[in-house]
User: Which sequence fits this backbone?
C-alpha cells in the first residue's frame, strides 16, 4: 500500500499506481460511532439498477504524464454512497474503457484494479495500449479493458484529510504514552477525513468497491466480467467473488492478499518471516558471488551483530571518511532492510551492509510513512486491533523471534500502526452468495514482502477450484512488461483460454 513495489525493475513512469501491499492493525480502544458506519448488512449478490454508460472523451493528463490513448473513452457511473441504502445519496465512479481491437474475436470485458489500497485504477484502460506498461496486443484484441478509480480515490471524488495531524506522531512508539499518543493522533486524522470528505470517507471499504464493480458491469450491459487484480486488487477480486460469483467469467489474482482477515500478529509474522528468508537468500548469494562486499563473512551473522550494536546504542551511520555520530536504532535498521530487500539489488544491499559494519561508506535510508487514503480502506477491511502497549510489545517480541535476522517487516508494521486508534471501525466480512465460480488463478512470487506466499496459498484455498502459479524470485506485482514475463503469459493464457 503506500510505496511502489514491482518485480526487480523500475515502475512504468506512465502509470500512476499507488501500491504497498499489506494490511493493518486497528486500535484496541472502543471504536467511535461515525456517520455511515451502521452495521446494516447489504444483501449478497444484489446490485442497484444502473443506467447505461454514456461514454465521452477522456481528460488530458497532468504533466509530466502523457495524455491517455486516443482510443480510450471515459464516463462516470453513479452508485449509492452507502450500499445499505441503495436509494440514498449517490457518489460518482470514474470509469475508462479501451475497446477490443478485434470485435469479431472479442471475449468480453476485462475489469482490473491495481491495488494500493486506494490507488487510481482507470489508468489500466487509459494507457491499455502503452507499449511499455500496457497489455499485449493479443489481450487488446480480445477484451474491452475497463479501469476505474475506486470510490474516494483519484477522479472519483478523491478523499481529503488533514495530513499535518500525524506529523508529530511517533513512528515507532517506545512506551505506553507514545502508543496512546499515536492512537489519539490517528483518531484525529480519521475524524479530519470525515470532516473534509464527508460520509464517503466511511464507505471506502472493499465490499463497497466490489458492489461498485458490479454496478459498472450492469451499466456496461454485460452479464459477466473477467477480473484481473493486483496486490490489494486481489482482495477486491475475492470480495467480488464472494458477493457475485455468478457474474464472473474469470478471476486472475496477481500478488495475492491473505483473504482470511488475519490478526495483527499473524500478518506481521508472515511479512517478517518472508523478509527474513529474503535476507537468507541474499546471504546464500553472497557466499557464492565474488561481487559481494561481505564475500568472506556470514552475511546473516554480520546483520545479527549490527542489531546487537543497535540495541547497545553503539551502531552509527557510516560516512565517507568513517563513522559519524548519528546513532542507528534497531527499528531504523529494520526499515533499511525492508526497503533494500524488497527491490532485490544484492550487490548494492551487501555493499551498504558492509558500510554499516565498517562505519565507512554510504547507506540509502528509508523513511516510514502512512497514507490516509490507504488507511481509509485498510482500517475498514481488516480488524487487527491491538489492545494496548503491552500487547504491542509482546507481539513485536514474538515476531522478532520468528524473524531473528531482520526483527520486523516495517512495511507491514507501518500499516499496523497506521490503523491504531482509527475511529471508523472495521466492517464485517460479507456473507458468501450462492452461485458457481469459475476456476481461479493465483500468481505470486516466492519472496514477496508485501503479499507473502502464505497469504497467496490461503487465497488459493479460499476457492473451490483454484491453482497457484509461483515464481522463485524477490518481487511484487508479477503481471507487467519488463518483469520476468512468464507470469504475464500464464495470466494472459488463462484469461483468453478459459471456456464458458
Assistant:
Amino acid at each position: 500500500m503506500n510505496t511502489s513495489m514491482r518485480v526487480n525493475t523500475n515502475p512504468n513512469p506512465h502509470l500512476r499506481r499507488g501500491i504497498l501491499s499489506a494490511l493493518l492493525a486497528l486500535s484496541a480502544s472502543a471504536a467511535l460511532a461515525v456517520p455511515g458506519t451502521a452495521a446494516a448488512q447489504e444483501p449478497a449478490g444484489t446490485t442497484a439498477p444502473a443506467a447505461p454508460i454514456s461514454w465521452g472523451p477522456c481528460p488530458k493528463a497532468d504533466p509530466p504524464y502523457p495524455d491517455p490513448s486516443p482510443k480510450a473513452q471515459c464516463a462516470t457511473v453513479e452508485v449509492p454512497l452507502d450500499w445499505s441504502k441503495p436509494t440514498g445519496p449517490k457518489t460518482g465512479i470514474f470509469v475508462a474503457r479501451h475497446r477490443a481491437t478485434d470485435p469479431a474475436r472479442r471475449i468480453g470485458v476485462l475489469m482490473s484494479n491495481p491495488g494500493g489500497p486506494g490507488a487510481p485504477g482507470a489508468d489500466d484502460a487509459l494507457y491499455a495500449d502503452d507499449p511499455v506498461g500496457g497489455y499485449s496486443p493479443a489481450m487488446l484484441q480480445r477484451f474491452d479493458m475497463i479501469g476505474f478509480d475506486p470510490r474516494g480515490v483519484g477522479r472519483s471524488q478523491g478523499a481529503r484529510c488533514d495530513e499535518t495531524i500525524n506529523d508529530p506522531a511517533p513512528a515507532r512508539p517506545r512506551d505506553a504514552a507514545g502508543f496512546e499518543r499515536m492512537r489519539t493522533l490517528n483518531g484525529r486524522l480519521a475524524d479530519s477525513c470525515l470532516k473534509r470528505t464527508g460520509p464517503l470517507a466511511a464507505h471506502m471499504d472493499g465490499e463497497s468497491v466490489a458492489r461498485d464493480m458490479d454496478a459498472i458491469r450492469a451499466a456496461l450491459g454485460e452479464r459477466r466480467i473477467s477480473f484481473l487484480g493486483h496486490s490489494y486488487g486481489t482482495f477486491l477480486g475475492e470480495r467480488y467473488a464472494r458477493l457475485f460469483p455468478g457474474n464472473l467469467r474469470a478471476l486472475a489474482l496477481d500478488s495475492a492478499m491473505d483473504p482470511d482477515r488475519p490478526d495483527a500478529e499473524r500478518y506481521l509474522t508472515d511479512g517478517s518471516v518472508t523478509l527474513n528468508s529474503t535476507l537468507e537468500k541474499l546471504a546464500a548469494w553472497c557466499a557464492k558471488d565474488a561481487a559481494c562486499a561481505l564475500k568472506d563473512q556470514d552475511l546473516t551473522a554480520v546483520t545479527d551483530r549490527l542489531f546487537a550494536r543497535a540495541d547497545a546504542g553503539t551502531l552509527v551511520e557510516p560516512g565517507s571518511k568513517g563513522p559519524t555520530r548519528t546513532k542507528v536504532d534497531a527499528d531504523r535498521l529494520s526499515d533499511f532492510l525492508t526497503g533494500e530487500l524488497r527491490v532485490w539489488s544484492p550487490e548494492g544491499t551487501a555493499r551498504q551492509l558492509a558500510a554499516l559494519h565498517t562505519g565507512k561508506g554510504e547507506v540509502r535510508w528509508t523513511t516510514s510513512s502512512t497514507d490516509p487514503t490507504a488507511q481509509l480502506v485498510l482500517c475498514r477491511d481488516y480488524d487487527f486491533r491491538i489492545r494496548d502497549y503491552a500487547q504491542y510489545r509482546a507481539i513485536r517480541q514474538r515476531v522478532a523471534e520468528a524473524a531473528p535476522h531482520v526483527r520486523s517487516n516495517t512495511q507491514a508494521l507501518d500499516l499496523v500502526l497506521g490503523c491504531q486508534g482509527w475511529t471508523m471501525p472495521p466492517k464485517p466480512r460479507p456473507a458468501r452468495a450462492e452461485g458457481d465460480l469459475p476456476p481461479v488463478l493465483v500468481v505470486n512470487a516466492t519472496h514477496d514482502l508485501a503479499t507473502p506466499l502464505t497469504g497467496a496459498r490461503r487465497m488459493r484455498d479460499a476457492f473451490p477450484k483454484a491453482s497457484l502459479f509461483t515464481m522463485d524470485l524477490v518481487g511484487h506485482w508479477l503481471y507487467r512488461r519488463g518483469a520476468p514475463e512468464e507470469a504475464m503469459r500464464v495470466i494472459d493464457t488463462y484469461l483468453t483460454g478459459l471456456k464458458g
Observations:
- The beta strands are 72-80, 90-98, 108-113, 143-148, 225-230, 248-254, 440-447, 466-474.
